[in-house]
Design a protein that fits this description.
Elements: H1 2-27, E1 32-49, E2 52-67, H2 84-113, E3 115-116, E4 121-126, H3 131-134, E5 142-146, E6 149-150, H4 154-162, E7 169-175, E8 178-184, E9 199-202, E10 205-206, H5 210-229, H6 231-237, H7 250-269, H8 285-301, H9 309-322, H10 328-355
Helix pairs in contact: 1-2, 1-8, 2-5, 2-8, 2-9, 5-8, 7-8
Length: 363
């Protein structure tokens, strides 16, 4: 079932990309001969809409759009015969659909989980027999002030605690709408992993309406795009180890998906916990991973590499800027070589998934 679920997710993400190309081609009056689910050989024709055949193919690893006259500008009504702006729109529409899907998935996540209120601090976890537990703290307590200083960030309370090691700190907190005051003594005898007081800090969440959730979904998608685009520079600077920033193939994606699904199932089946222990809220690792994959797919296709959408856009630039078109036979040859190199690269990436698999433990 996990394998079937992974195949379904992967195919859907690729089809979302191809639907972008299809809709843009239709809008630009470009004839599309075939919209394929899966890769050839063809199993059957599902139906025909206008001039486009929708087909089911044997290899369940994606899909494709086959526009008329894709590389031949002499074919009337074909893609290559369309204006450069129409072709640009068709090429951009696929990645744009993937990025839009990422925004919508993150919007769904935020409507389900709410939005963290970073101006308030809550105790997510209190370790047994820790200084915090001895002071009477429980998971879910809202920290209001420490030593008379209002607390409005996790960094603020953390800084104050570590500036008061082995000294009493007076904490005002809220539980079930009531305010209480207690004293905790951060211990220098505890390890960094245990924490000086033995608490896990977090932020309470508030319900988000659709507009707020979508706005945050756009911001998170933009942040993830920024992370991808700046990754090469951060590797060169050494801020990200190169062995943690490599491409992964189908097996790597499957491994990540398996972990995400298992973690989500675990948090949804956890029994009621005693007071003072961490409250495991239902997680959204699977949805977040799907959002990550669709955004990555969109950005990857925009890379200026032959055969990818970004590579084809690169060949459009002389025509858009100087009104001089690259000869179609040269462009076709370059893309054919690009496809071969891309296949070799994908083979290498997928082999590395088996030879040197990436292991990630979800929190």
């Amino acid at each position: 079932m996990m394998l079937l679920f992974f195949i379904l997710v992967f195919v859907v993400l690729v089809l979302i990309h191809e639907l972008g190309h299809l809709f843009a081609a239709k809008a630009g009056k470009v004839q599309v001969d075939e919209f394929g689910i899966g890769l050839p050989p063809r199993i059957m024709t599902l139906f025909k809409w206008r001039e486009t055949e929708f087909t089911l193919n044997a290899l369940p690893i994606g899909g494709f759009v086959r526009p008329k006259g894709e590389n031949d500008p002499n074919v009337p009504g074909g893609l290559a015969a369309a204006s450069p702006w129409v072709r640009l729109g068709v090429l951009l529409a696929g990645p744009a659909m993937n990025l839009l899907a990422g925004v919508l998935i993150y919007t769904l996540i935020f409507t389900q989980t709410g939005i963290p209120d970073v101006s308030r601090v809550i105790l997510v976890e209190v370790s047994p027999d820790s200084p915090a537990a001895q002071a009477g703290f429980q998971a879910g307590d809202l920290i209001l002030s420490a030593n008379g200083t209002p607390i409005n960030s996790t960094e603020g309370i953390r800084t104050l605690i570590y500036a008061s090691i082995d000294q009493p700190v007076e904490i005002v907190y809220e539980r079930n709408g009531q305010q209480y005051t207690t004293t905790v003594v951060p211990s220098s005898q505890r390890t960094a992993e245990q924490g000086a007081t033995g608490v896990l800090l977090g932020n309470p969440v508030q319900q988000a309406n659709l507009l707020t959730a979508m706005s945050l979904g756009i911001r998170v998608t933009g942040m993830y795009i920024h992370e991808i685009l700046t990754l090469p520079a951060r590797i060169i600077q050494g801020s990200v180890p190169s062995d943690q920033a490599r491409f992964i193939g189908l097996k790597g994606m499957y491994d990540f998906m398996s972990q995400a699904v298992a973690k989500d199932q675990q948090t949804r089946q956890v029994p009621q916990q005693p007071a003072g222990t961490p409250a495991q809220e239902p997680t959204n690792y699977t949805l977040a991973l799907i959002a990550t994959l669709t955004i990555s797919l969109g950005i990857f296709n925009l890379l200026p590499f032959p055969a990818l959408d970004g590579g084809r856009i690169l060949f459009l630039l002389p025509e858009l800027i100087f009104r001089r078109r690259v000869p179609p036979n040269i462009e076709t040859t370059v893309h054919a070589v690009g496809i071969m190199l891309l296949l070799v690269l994908m083979l290498y990436i997928n082999l590395m998934d088996f030879i040197n698999p990436i292991t990630v433990t979800l929190p």
